[in-house]
Design goal:
The structure holds two protein chains of two kinds. Chain A is mainly β. Chain A has no helices and eleven strands. The chains are: A mainly beta, B mainly beta.
Chain lengths: 114, 111
Amino acid sequence: DTGVSQDPRHKITKRGQNVTFRCDPISEHNRLYWYRQTLGQGPEFLTYFQNEAQLEKSRLLSDRFSAERPKGSFSTLEIQRTEQGDSAMYLCASSFRRSQETQYFGPGTRLLVL
Amino acid sequence: SQKIEQNSEALNIQEGKTATLTCNYTNYSPAYLQWYRQDPGRGPVFLLLIRENEKEKRKERLKVTFDTTLKQSLFHITASQPADSATYLCALETGANNLFFGTGTRLTVIP
């Protein structure tokens, strides 16, 4: 399967701990997005990369959140000092350089902060 | 700020009937609108994109309309099947490089 992959699929952590999620986009896709989704809501945009450059960040992305895409391939999203309100599904998506409107989503990482 | 309303949280229909889902938006004029399907515990899957200059787009049993005057999109599934049961999300392009999603409509097709 050459779709978007995310790791881990599930993460349980205690409040105050740091967590890091990884996303591997479809290989020829130059754009990579992170979204957060809570129960009963649609995905909410967090941040976006074009190649290795982080070009946009939502105001939802507090100082405790940081994302990187060091070589323009995989990306990591780190949450420091997790809070219970960070519990959500974190979704990664990528899009193809010639058809950038359509985003292909990974299966998500479900985070539970106790 | 942008706002999207999808007609209902949940919609139940009988197998074989046509399901019609509504997406209304305010405070924006998107260049295109997309529909995604999401199954429980999975990421959204792209279904259809319709541009502002297109009135209708079809793909197999799916049809989407886009009325920029009414600021509304309708999503139809004809000859619905139990396998069509899922949450359907409407998403607008924002002029920035991301999508703005509605809360979704959970469709259940009853055999």
